[in-house]
Amino acid sequence: MNIPNYLAENDIKPSYQRIRIFEYLYHEMNHPTVDLIYKTLAPEIPTLSKTTVYNTLKLFVDKGITSTVTIENNEVRYDAIVTHHGHFKCNVCGIIVDIPLNFNQLNLNELKDVTIEQTQVHLIGKCNKCLTI
């Protein structure tokens, strides 16, 4: 993916900081928080601030190229995959992984005359590594 072009196609000026933040989201796929992105990129970009990371992520969400993942009330994470999918979070090590889901197979017959604007599926448990500890 050509990230500068992708940002421009989505009406986002591709500044160096925006490019690096989206590259991090797109390539790491670790559903990071603002703090994690800031701590990772700040050594490389000394002028980067948490406010810039937050504002950039808000812009990405507003433009529909990033989504928020809120599995627990006090923790907002970000995801560069905006197609329908679910998440699994290990309650021991904290890893969050994507789960492919087929939303067409959901039985939504009980919901009549509604419009679904957002879907979130979150599963919480123990990952394979933490089960062996």
What labels would you give this structure?
three-stranded mixed beta sheet, 133 residues, Arc Repressor Mutant, subunit A, 5 helices, two-stranded antiparallel sheet, 5 strands, alpha+beta
Structure characterization notes:
This protein has 133 residues and is α+β, with helices and mostly antiparallel strands. It folds into two domains: 3-79, Arc Repressor Mutant, subunit A (Orthogonal Bundle), CATH 1.10.10; 86-131, Dna Ligase, domain 1. Helix content is 34%, strand content 18%. A three-stranded mixed β-sheet has the order 4-3-5, with no helix packed on it. A two-stranded antiparallel ribbon has the order 1-2. Helix 2 (16-28) packs across helix 4. The longest helix is centred in the first third of the chain and has 13 residues, at 16-28. It is globular. The relative contact order is 0.14. The model has no long low-confidence stretch (mean pLDDT 90).
Q: Strand count, sense and closure of the main sheet?
A: 3 strands, mixed
The CATH architecture of the largest domain comes to Orthogonal Bundle
Q: What is the chains' assembly state?
A: single chain
- Count of folded domains: 2
The rough form would be described as: globular
Short account of what is shown:
Helices cover 34% and strands 18% of the residues. The protein has five helices and five strands.
